[in-house]
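Q: Here's a chain of 577 amino acids. Please give me its 3D structure as tokens.
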Amino acid sequence: MGVATVTELRQSISGKRAFRPSLTTRHANEWPPTDVSSDLTVEVGTSSFALHKFPLVSRSGKIRRAVAEAKDGRLARLSLHGTPGGAVAFELAAKFCYGVGVDVTVGNVAMLRCAAHYLQMTEDFSDKNLELRAEAFLRDAVLPSIASSVAVLRSCEALLPAAEDVNLVPRLIAAIANNVCKEQLTSGLSKLDQLKPPPAVSAGVDLDSPGDWWGKSVAGLGLDFFQRLLSAVKSKGLKQETVTRILINYAQNSLHGLMARDIQAAAKCGGDTDAIKKQRAVVETIVGLLPAQSKKSPVPMAFLSGLLKTAMAVSASSICRADLEKRIGMQLDQAILEDILVAAGPGAAAAAAAGAGQQHTLYDTDVVARIFAVFLNLDDDSNEEDVGGAFDYDSPRSPKQSLLVKASKLLDSYLAEIALDSNLLPSKFISLAELLPDHARLVTDGLYRAVDIFLKVHPNIKEAERYRMCKAIDCQRLTPDACSHAAQNERLPGQMAVARMRMRLTDLEKDHVSMKRELVRVSPANRLLRSFARSLGRLNALFRMRPAAEPGLHQLGAKATADAKVLFQRRRRHSIS
């Protein structure tokens, strides 16, 4: 009873509802049904379901066709291992076939939609079938909501390629992008209506923006879905600040597992581990999604620096590293010492190990040299309009001189740090010391300190290298304290006696001026001299006022001047000099 005949099954293939409704009504509240013996066992994964052909073929085109194509209609066991969502999804679909109530939720709608497609539970075989039910829930409850769409999108990752076949993934991504940009517009309009702006949090970050709540939820997406979603929201006009926050959240969630021991192990074995490959893909994808390169980019310097260090550690592509180097160079005024202390990558260590007797350095100085080169050549590469107009870093009167001075302090601190590396070649140090133009350093104490540290750590360098290194220091811009130190520094070459001599002359000049001022201040004759000078001044003014009224006096003055000249000439003639 309740078992369909072969004739009934074959007839049902060409039409709808070719089954007895009394069966599904009888078992509407039972699962699994027990009062009727099973005539079909369905296997899904490691699970088996003892079911009945009649309710299944009434809704599923796939099962109906399998039963109809069986020899003599005797199909007792059916394997459906390809069901999207596995045994859980099939059980829900089977319940739906039996008329048992099935709740469609955000958590199961994706697998029900995919399972309905796989089992062919469409309107072609039965009215109000599972596919229509899932689509209605997606339309009404999922796609209008950002949070629900993100949740369903995450569940689709375990349902590939079925989720792509039913066009579910593209629809979810498009819905999220549209809703996010609408919310951004609405949020912006509501803020314009307020009488006063909300208090600033930090660096202009608004915690009420859309990216701060849903951006964290997309951090759990796989790399492919994340890339497609962020590309979509960027194309819809999402703010760069929001895009940046989403990228930072995703990077923190995806790259936190990068361990130094994994990198070292990969370098030793000469190959890549799966973890390294994954990290490399994440870094390259994130860099590709960053906002456009700009001096005023919203991407924080600390984030760029972290990406570059990770890119170096996992041997990311040269395009990826060059992009990060250029971004850091364009925003170098925001950098601190820790941002440019990039450790030498595993490739450098492997190359040093391959070389006979060579030791790898602690830091990659070539990266820093390229970053500063970008900074110095900003005018050549940037098309952005600047308030001060075009400027030349090589000019002492440049309006951006303050940026250059700041960069010189950063470079001097970097030189002092890498000078402690005993394996650093003098040529690398010298090339960095000579990188900036002469007017970049208003005071050369920082460079002198770095050179002194290098000479102390590397006492056996050649004299020519020692001379060239010290030549980079402008002794005229050393402070008195630095001059005093240089005068007693035995590590400096003989050419630095310029600095020592200048210091001594300066001290002598200061002493001379001080003594002279003191003598003038305390001498009793000083008052007499000042009184005599004032009297001469008044007398001179009197003669200037009356030359026209007394012409004879003018002639007398002229004669006296001529006599004085003759007298002076005579004296010169008899002088022994």
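Q: Can you summarize the key feature?
A: The radius of gyration is 43 Å.
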